[in-house]
Amino acid sequence: MAKRNAPAKAKVAKSTWATKRGLAQMLKGGVIMDVVTPAEAKVAEEAGAVAVMALERVPSDIRRDGGVARMSDPDMIKGIQAVTSIPVMAKARIGHHVEAQILEALNVDYIDESEVLTPADDRFHINKHEFRVPFVCGCKDLGEALRRISEGAAMMRTKGEAGTGNIVEAVRHIRTVKEQIEALKGQSEKRLRAAAKEMRVPYELVKLTMKAGRLPVVNFVAGGIATPADAALSMWLGADGVFVGSGIFKSKSPAKTAAAIVQATTHWANPAILAEVSAGLGEAMKGIEMRTIPDAERLSSRGW
Amino acid sequence: MAGASRRKRQPVIGVMAVQGDFREHLDTLDAVGAVGREIRLPADLDGVDGLILPGGESTAMRKLYARWGLVAPVKALATRGAPILGTCAGAILLATKIADGDEPVLSLIDMEVRRNAFGRQLDSFETELKMQSLKASGGPTTLRAVFIRAPEILRVGPAASVVAQLEGGEIVAARQGNVVGISFHPEIAGETRLHRWLVEQAATTRRG
Question: Which residue among A104, A241, B95, B103 is least packed, with the fewest CB closer than 10 Å?
């Protein structure tokens, strides 16, 4: 007997490249804020953050305390997930496959494989293709960005120097990435292949970047943003959005500073608005001059 | 030049650019040969014939809309009959009711939505979706739909109508006249039909 055809069921696919990369696309033009308590997460959401990064200590405290910095306590991450409706990200150590598995089990929205924590592997970053949850990674230059993307990162952030409140390294890193992409323009296939070999990444990825004129995933600026003007400068340099770590909760008035940085990230090209939102914020985080940080203590040199 | 002045002006499509994936919408408009404009302040809406509310975080967007007085001029644009398309967070802003407490923002589609109704990022998904064509003459079409921490339309009131449902029955697109809210993202899936509809509609409204 002829069997009656059931209507074809539409296939539902999760954790695809489009969904992984897509969440980062939705965060653009926004501010992702480091928070260490549920109360801070509420302040961040109230200020208009597009996501929070749940961690135990902000980078400036990690820098001060020294020792080994690791993934946060799962209870602390759950506490933050419980109070906020915006995406919650969390950090795993570079190369720490199991910390990443734990964070995926906690159902975080994004994992930051971060140099702010002490690296767990001196040879390999996490193979991010193996995970269902998307990853964001840090970079100082184009090669580093493309190596992380070829490992499966669905979002990038230029590293800057976290916990310093000093924007100079962040500016250097985004400028470097931009200049290196610019340099690919109009190059012959032979030159592009040589560049791919030098950067140790697939040729197709280099070609894709050259054609788009930008990284193939969303790129935020991080590491040193302490004021609304710093956030606007990052956007002016071509950032898709900003991460702010110590800059908010180490300032005199965190709620006001957070809201002002959100406004400045949207209205980065409007100096009159920037003047308005920058007024009366009180003291920003104190900050550190780069020359006073020994090379061994530079977080941005972790990862390769 | 005389020739240029006689040429019909193309409709201008505003894309709310306070936060979210507005560049992807501008790129899609560009791909269909339309003129897009970033909107951050009320003055940017002058001369706009249609509007897109992109995806992003609705909690952040609602604050930026409120702070710069964007709610009233967007509502006025809808009153004039200009077509409006809200994707994901944009659809949340269009709803008359938001489940679990949040105040509505634009209240332009008689519907109740729930934010993050399908779960967190690990439950984001893509699928083929059957959708009623937005054109009066059109039938159902199929399109690739990407849902990211997507809202669900729980209920559509008498003033609005359902445009698309998942196979499980969840409503993911609704319209009220020229205002359309969808839970997914055509702009990151290479899908241009909704943008084409918006541009055609904007041209009609402009002439009328």
Answer: B103
Q: How do residues A162-203 score in pLDDT, each as one tens digit?
A: 999 999 999 999 999 999 999 999 999 999 999 999 999 999
Q: Note the pLDDT tens digit of each residue in A233-285.
A: 999 999 999 999 899 999 999 999 999 999 999 999 999 999 999 999 988 88
For residues A5 and B162, what is the distance between their CA atoms, to the nearest angstrom?
Answer: 27
pLDDT above 50 (res B109): yes
Alpha carbon separation from A265 to A3, A17, A97, A285 (Å, rounded)? 60, 27, 33, 19
Asked if B167 lies within 8 A of A45 by C-beta distance, the reply is: no
Question: Of A47, A134, A267, which is closest to B40 when you measure between CB atoms?
Answer: A267
CA angle (A131, A155, A217) in 5-degree steps: 115
Residue numbers in B near A18 (CB within 8 A): 126, 146, 188-189
Residue A134 CB contacts under 8 Å (≥ 6 apart), including other chains: A15, A19, A20, A21, A23, A24, A109, A110, A111, A154, A155, B121
ipTM of the complex: 0.95
- With an 8 Å Cβ cutoff, are A50 and B60 in contact? yes
* Catalytic (active site) residue A250: no
- On chain B, the residues whose CB falls within 8 A of the CB of A155 are none
The helix (run of H) or strand (run of E) holding residue A92 is strand A88-93
Pairing relationship of beta strands A13-14 and B95-98 according to DSSP bridges: unpaired
Residue of chain B whose alpha carbon sits nearest to that of A104: B122
Tokens 């904007």 map to which residue? Answer: B202
Q: How far apart are CA B32 and CA B14, in angstroms?
A: 15
**3 state SS for A161-197:** CCCCCCCHHHHHHHHHHHHHHHHHCCCCHHHHHHHHH
pTM above 0.90, yes or no: yes
Nearest-CA distance A30 → chain B (Å): 6
